[in-house]
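User: Can you help me understand a structure? I only have the sequence.
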Amino acid sequence: MINQIKKMRKMKTSQEVLNRLEFIQRIRKAEGLKTHIGLDNNYEAYLKLETITYKIAIKKANTIDEIEKCAVSVEEEYIGNLDPDAWADEIRIKAYGLSWFLNKTFSSPAYKEFENFIEQPKGE
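Assistant: Let's start by predicting it. Here is the structure, written out as tokens:
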């Protein structure tokens, strides 16, 4: 696993790292199947490797498109210990800035519904 991390750190682009991530995720899923059968597995180790891979990909991202690919991948594929939605938001803040994130959050339909709920008069 250490060799995998070293190889990924030497890769030039985040897309190369994300391509490697697909391979790691397939192995993790296979290790998860071993759990159901009752065989020894390295599932937890591959979960940690997956998290490290995402971090490497994010660090290697140079354009907003690359950062967005990392954020989408985290939202859709990540199942580790971190909250994928919160992590994807952090990635997008890196790409677009905090003002974009706050504007998006406070102009969302869910937030508008929350404001309407708060403003409703209390029943007696």
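Now, to help you interpret it: Residues 14-37 form the longest helix (24 residues). The chain has a mean pLDDT of 83. Let me know which part you'd like to focus on.
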